[in-house]
């Protein structure tokens, strides 16, 4: 049963709509039961509204969220595993890393996540800055 409250001409009404069987709705208005016959009507034409795309996501400072394309061959990008904010970058260009080296810290869903290099190599480029919002799959840095 669905309950509704209406105010008509200053009078309060509590309406409960129960089961509907064979075009008969079992309705209760202020505790008084009624059987209401539902008549078929022509449906109003459906109007389709065109929705403008939402604005691009932005960081707290108003900067656009970064989502750079993938890197060229011979290089490997460390990608963001989920959308979030870069809290810290633990390496700099030229640093040698191993697969377990933490290269960045990403805050997502109120948790800090360590982002590891994932392979041996040298950091060739860092594509994000501390405080940037990134989407899932965004290249954080490039290792060669």
Low-confidence stretches: none
Indicate the overall shape.
Answer: rod-shaped
SSE ordering: EEEEEEEEEEEE
Class from secondary-structure proportions: mainly beta
What is the chains' assembly state?
single chain
Count of extended strands: 12
Radius of gyration: 29 Å
Main-sheet strand order equals 1-2-3-4
Distance between the termini: 65 Å
Tell me about the biggest sheet?
4 strands, antiparallel
Question: How much β-strand is present in the residues?
Answer: over 45%
Fraction of residues in helices?
under 10%
Average pLDDT, all residues: 83
Q: Count every helix, treating DSSP H or I runs of 4 or more residues as helices.
A: 0
